Amino acid sequence: MTVWIAIALTALGCYLVKLTGLSIPAAVLERPLVRRLAVLLPVALLAALTALQTFGAGPGELTLDARAVGLGAAAVALLLRAPFLLVIAVAVLVTAGVRWLGG
To answer: Which of 70, 74, 100 is nearest to 85 (CA)?
Structure first.
């Protein structure tokens, strides 16, 4: 039953966030600082999620495994200006290869 309470509270929270965004005056949204933050926020959130999923093993733990090697390979592919799908393929193949070699 507590799972459904959590789902209901999350749904209500999402609705309230959406309602808050719709009720902000347009003049506030046109400010240069707000525009700049709106552009940078998704990138920062994606970077944080990537770091957490790559290096996080649990609360307060840090791990370096095949995921970190795959992320490094993807970074090299990005530096070489590879297309996005190739970057993803390189990361997947390198990660799988390191896991296969490691056991």
So the answer is: 74
Both structure tokens of 37: 């933050």
- 58 or 23: which leads in pLDDT: 23
Q: Where are the domains of the chain?
A: 64-103
Q: In angstroms, what CA-CA distances link 102 with 55, 61, 96?
A: 18, 21, 10
What are 58-103's pLDDT values in tens digits? Answer: 788 888 899 999 999 999 999 999 999 999 999 999 999 999 998 5
- Using alpha carbons, select from 51, 85, 57, 86 the residue that is nearest to residue 71: 51
